[in-house]
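Thread title: Can someone regenerate the structure for this chain?

I was given the following input by a collaborator and told the matching structure tokens would be attached. They weren't. Posting the sequence so someone can regenerate them.
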Amino acid sequence: MKALLLFCPLLFGVTGCTQDALCSNDVQQVARDPGSDRYAATLVRNCGATTDYATVVRVGRASEAQSAVKEVFVADTDHGAATRGAQGAIWTSVVWTAPGKLSIAYAKDARVYRQKDHAKGATISFLKSGPMAAPQVD
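Best answer:
Regenerated them for you:
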């Protein structure tokens, strides 16, 4: 039993103690608030073959540590029902419409796990939508 208790911390040290250690996070976009040092980062979280890719939007401040960043939106394709964007994520558009006002448009059929309307002093609005495309030029 003692050997097992000594082996477990070693095992956790090699494999990681949290889910984040087993997942990759690839940044797709960073939008900067024109009125402050706030930013919104859109990333794709991949936790392996048995789970769908998650699209995550995080809001933070350039003057703060990464540990202070807040996740304000998390969604996935709901088993392929939502339109996929780059790298397996759902389609999103994340823009600062004015200082302190963030707008997140996302695939209308996405399964949303988290949606917060305030973070780091910013107000956040959400819009379910289809992918937007540039108009055709004749």
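The longest strand covers residues 24-32.
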